[in-house]
Amino acid sequence: MGAYVARRLATLPLLLLGISAVSFALLSLAPGDPAETILRQRNPGQMPSPAAVAALRAEMGLDAPLPAQYVRWMSRALGGDMGRSYLTEQPVAAQLARRTVPTAMLTAAALGLALLLAVPMGILSARRRGGAVDAVVRVVALVGASASSYALAFGLIILFAVKLSWLPAVGYGSAAQIVLPAIALSLAPMAQLTRLIRGSILDVLGQDYIRTARAKGLTEKAVLMGHALRNALLPAIGATGVFLAHLLGGAVIIETIFTWPGLGQLIVGAALTRDYPVVQGFVTYLAVVVLLVNLATDIALRVANPRLRYERGQV
User: Fold this and answer.
1) Number of C-alpha atoms within 13 angstroms, CB side, residue 88?
2) pTM of the model
3) Residue 250: is its pLDDT beyond 60?
């Protein structure tokens, strides 16, 4: 296990180098000039002169060739300096750090809610295969997997905040304010996890060792909880890491709708104002988080399933 973790960690710098280089190149192809955008925001209603734009581009280092810009940014990023925002002139790393806590809270709440609902629904659907309960769960999962989180968010606001006045629609700081965004963000992973768990349990229940357990006279509940469930949940453990990355990406939309002060709201504002250091820092930061989550997921799978544990000479 130690050798496997060491090998995975050794590949992270190369992956981050590739991701940061590609994102840096793509940002340079985006329409618009950051210097011109900043000057327009500083002086609303006035068209900046070409000389002023050129001077600001030189000040920000945008007049250098793209490879030179990337090397300069990477050399600073390796030391923990991800640059400064073009607009606020605040360190990007500090901005990302401040916004991480709200996003982490929302993501954890959404993932916890998805697991809390998906596991019992998947188990119940598998146990009642072909019955009314199974049909209802499958319809709910299908709707959840197909529904737009954008539309769901506005639906939740209209129903629970406007019509019923049960929960606040926007804001941050109280337990009630996290309920609606967490529900909107959790629907898609909940639906997919439910279907995954149901299919995995049905597959495991057809294995020989399950038939042996039944032949010994064990009840169906004992067979399911004592023999089938652990192996059936292994795919869900692996999928959780993927869904966590999905939640981080989906938080961009949800945080904007509910004015949740997390990373999503930060990156939307930075993209609209051509604040490229913030966008580049966010992409790199998100890549680190996703890669570490995937590594943690693989380790958890190997701990839960001895057959997947790494041995020397295996990939």
Assistant:
1) 14
2) 0.80
3) yes
